[in-house]
Amino acid sequence: MIKANIAGISPRMISKNALTVVDKLNRNGYEAYVVGGCLRDLLLGKKPKDFDVATNARPEQIQAVFQRQCRLVGRRFRLAHVMFGRDIIEVATFRANHTESKNENQARQNEDGMLLRDNVYGTLEQDAERRDFTVNALYYNPKDNTIHDYYQGIEDLKAGKLRLIGNPATRYQEDPVRMLRSVRFMAKLDMFLDKPSEEPIRQLAPLLRNIPPARLFDESLKLLQAGFGVKAYRLMREYGLFEQLFPSLTPYFTEKNDSFAERMIEKALTSTDERVADKLRINPAFLFAAFFWYPLREKVEILKNEGGLNNHDAYALASNEVLDQCCSALAAPRRHTGVIRDIWFLQLQLTKRSGKYPAVTMSHPKFRAAYDLLAMRAEIEGGEAIELATWWHEYQFSNEEQRHNLVKEQNKNAPKKKRYYRPRKRNKAKAAA
Q1: Catalytic one of 52, 118, 149, 342
Q2: pTM for this structure?
Q3: Of 158, 176, 357, 381, most Cβ neighbours within 10 A?
């Protein structure tokens, strides 16, 4: 136990709502501490995204203290959410090792050692042992302004070292998502993973296939859309984790990492990181549309050449197939898959620059995202894509008269439609005469 002010933490740095939760639990006779990642971030001089609390009160007891302000969530890992308007303080009950329980309602594991239920409650010391990394096993007590640091987490933070608590292989088997968390913290905090924690990852990476696709989708966003996507992607490739989340992209990986698909992934992630840094809006749909653009193009060409389909039908069918493959590993919500389809279909529309097409295309709600994808394609593909992207850039920022002239020029170059005339019907009476 150390004094928090020696480590550089004072009560004014902690969320008032988190302190309120701790104080109210204390007044009702329970132990409670501010815990985990928020302390880690404060010690690193970063602003925490949220503040969590750990307590010896059971979820039902927490709800009894906070009543309508509290709701219980989760089944695999039961938690309490205490709400202060939009701010939610997550409150977890101290966990103990599974050897402490034989009750399947509290603890259950599958054949691979993965925790299917983790509601064995214990003491503060037991809870620290159950935390994933030493840098997350930190507990702040506002009553005496002290920090409990059971596994030298503060020393590891100073050394820039990530270290799993306990046997790394066992901890990864309990929850394979810890492998993704390792990469996320390495990329986000610019830390390194110690050798014992690093060694089992490549071998155990396939265990991620046992994780529900919806959970993996959420984890992929934390990795790729938080401002350190390029670093996270390269680390995931290094440890064989990216292939587990995006198995249908694996055939496009090359020794030199220079295929069109790989270059697109890097460009899309670089753009996302820049937008996060500039505090601009980001949309997961754009990232996924970019990731799977070249697999889609390949599928479209196969359907056109082998199935004899026209461009429109080939795009529609290929979109279904590519999204089905993607969602079998990562369950992207329908609100995102609909936008992905729009961005892909607009790539087809962007090639049509005569008549009313440009005005109609630019009025589409997802035009800007589609244009951004076209601009990235131009950097990768060169040739016709550059000319097309340049034209659309000029069209967007032109006035009405300039747009009219741009389209007029295109009308001259557009192939004229053939006119078909129906043969006139002969008068049957005259024919008989």
Answers
A1: 52
A2: 0.85
A3: 176
